[in-house]
Design brief:
The radius of gyration is 23 Å and the shape is globular. It is built from 18 helices and seven strands. The strands form two sheets. Strands 1-2-3-5-4 form a five-stranded mixed beta barrel. A two-stranded antiparallel sheet has the order 6-7. Helix 9 runs antiparallel to helix 10, helix 13 packs across helix 17 and helix 14 runs antiparallel to helix 17. With 472 residues, the chain is of the alpha+beta class. Helix content is 61%, strand content 12%. It starts with a helix and ends with a helix. The protein has three domains: 117 residues, no CATH class; 90 residues, Beta Barrel (OB fold (Dihydrolipoamide Acetyltransferase, E2P)), CATH 2.40.50; 209 residues, no CATH class.
Length: 472
């Protein structure tokens, strides 16, 4: 009964994930019933007959599961309303390399589309006139640059609200009219390039705008710390932690504004959206005097993201973000972060996310285990200091440039030490079925035991979790 009382959205999320994992093997009308039966099974495994009012909560949970599942099934099988061609003026809201090309995502009155260019001749915030035929992503072939590991470009872009690619595009860059969040992002990048040292600027560019330097990303991949460059709950937590010391009066309102401004400025990545939804739930709970359960907040954020687009389920970023957040939430639920217990969080996240990370990238560096013991606290502190010093430099405060050089030295020293650890621990841990099963079993068991679910029911639920993972 404890999951029902503390985290009612956890059974709902379990039902939705099972439904989506089996979506390619079942008829659309069957999917909501799969979700309903899975939710009911999770509830039965954690039910206690001696608690008052549980039947109403259980009934509401089942209704919500069926409604969310019906919406997801409808969204999955709905063909995007894409015209045959486009001729409109739009705004570029994302640019990124894609194989040998660059892709620009453009928001127009007719919808959001992408176009390929041989060079990076468009930037975030550009106002453009685009023309060309449209190829919907629903059933469209993979784009050049897709990996052979099963990455599906259509699902990637559909999750982000982009419905088609402009084939043989013709575009013209137009004079800018006013400012928008995407233009601010581009200007911030330009200022960082001009006014900060290379390494400090690259780290702040990743933390402030979500743009990752290729050389820096390769280094962090060797160290097993790539997650520290991708905008996630780590960065959102650092920003909100710093802001909470500044705002006292009207705290919830100011923090809410800053929260969503930061998420939009950095490109609204799935990790940032998940963290923002969780923090927003916590702020609302604080406002109404009802503290939120960490596990329920993660579950609710995951359900809302899937409701916005069920294609997030197949996004690697969504899966890693949710798994990492659940690991932290379970730790908080058990109160294991007291004393030095927080040192175990980062290695546990690496262990829990191993099946997904290794399955996607082929292997994970063993050096990530020791390095991640100190990397999160180091970068939490270093990025906060670097951000403050960079803001002083951008404002022209005397002496800030000297401080920036000191910060650059700290980042350089980090790189030297991390390289040394990577040379001492040069091995790669490749994906294998047995290790992946152990990781899935451990993560599901930890979640069940956090709610004191009996061992027999825990065994049933961990088997269900393994089925979901290996079906997905």
């Amino acid at each position: 009964m404890i999951p029902l009382a503390r985290a009612p959205f956890l059974p709902v999320l379990a039902g939705l994930t099972m439904m989506l994992a089996l979506s390619s093997r079942a008829a659309p009308w069957v999917l909501p019933w799969i979700a309903l039966l899975t939710t009911a099974g999770v509830l039965l495994c954690s039910f206690s007959i001696d608690l008052k009012g549980q039947w109403r909560v259980a009934a509401l949970t089942l209704v919500l599961s069926f409604l969310f599942a019906s919406w997801l099934a409808f969204s999955l099988n709905r063909r995007p309303d894409v015209p045959a061609s486009v001729s409109a003026i739009g705004t570029v809201f994302q640019t990124r390399p894609w194989g040998r090309f660059y892709l620009a995502a453009v928001e127009t009155p007719q919808g959001s589309f992408i176009l390929r260019t041989p060079h990076e001749n468009l930037t975030d915030g550009d106002r453009v006139r685009v023309e060309g035929a449209l190829r919907p992503f629903d059933g469209a072939p993979h784009l050049p640059g897709d990996s052979p590991s099963g990455f599906h470009a259509g699902r990637y872009w559909l999750a982000r609200g982009v419905t088609a690619e402009i084939t043989s595009p013709r575009f013209e860059r137009l004079p800018d009219k006013g400012w928008n969040i995407h233009r601010w992002r581009h200007e911030l990048r330009r200022l960082l390039v001009i006014h900060t040292p290379r390494l400090t600027g690259a780290y702040l560019d990743a933390a402030w705008t979500g743009r990752r330097d290729a050389e820096l990303e390769n280094a962090h991949r060797v160290w097993g710390t790539s997650h520290l460059l991708a905008i996630s709950g780590f960065h959102v937590g650092v920003v909100m932690g710093a802001a909470s010391f500044v705002f006292r009066r009207g705290r919830a309102s100011w923090l809410t504004f800053l929260l969503w401004f930061y998420v939009l400025l950095t490109g609204a990545s799935v990790g940032a959206l998940r963290a923002a939804l969780m923090i927003q739930v916590a702020l609302l709970g604080e406002l109404f005097g009802r503290p939120a359960s960490a596990v329920n907040s993660v579950s609710l954020a995951a359900v809302l993201l899937l409701s916005l687009s069920p294609f997030w389920f197949w996004d690697v970023g969504w899966r890693l973000s949710i798994l990492g957040a659940f690991t932290i939430a379970v730790y908080l639920e058990r109160g294991s972060t007291r004393g030095l217990g927080w040192l175990c969080v980062s290695p546990l996240i690496g262990f829990v996310t191993f099946p997904q990370a290794a399955g996607t990238f082929g292997s994970v560096p063993a050096a990530g285990l020791p390095i991640n013991l100190v990397a999160p606290p180091f970068f939490g502190f270093a990025l906060s200091i670097a951000s403050g010093v960079a803001l002083l430099a951008l404002l022209g405060v005397p002496g800030a440039a000297l401080l920036l050089n000191a910060v650059e030295g700290v980042f350089l020293l980090w790189g030297v030490l991390a390289d040394a650890v990577a040379r001492l621990v040069p091995w790669q841990v490749e994906w294998n079925f047995y290790l992946a099963y152990v990781c899935v079993f451990f993560s599901a068991m930890s979640l069940c035991r956090a709610f004191f679910i009996p061992w027999v029911n825990t065994a049933a639920l961990t088997s269900l979790a393994a089925l979901v993972y290996f079906c997905a």
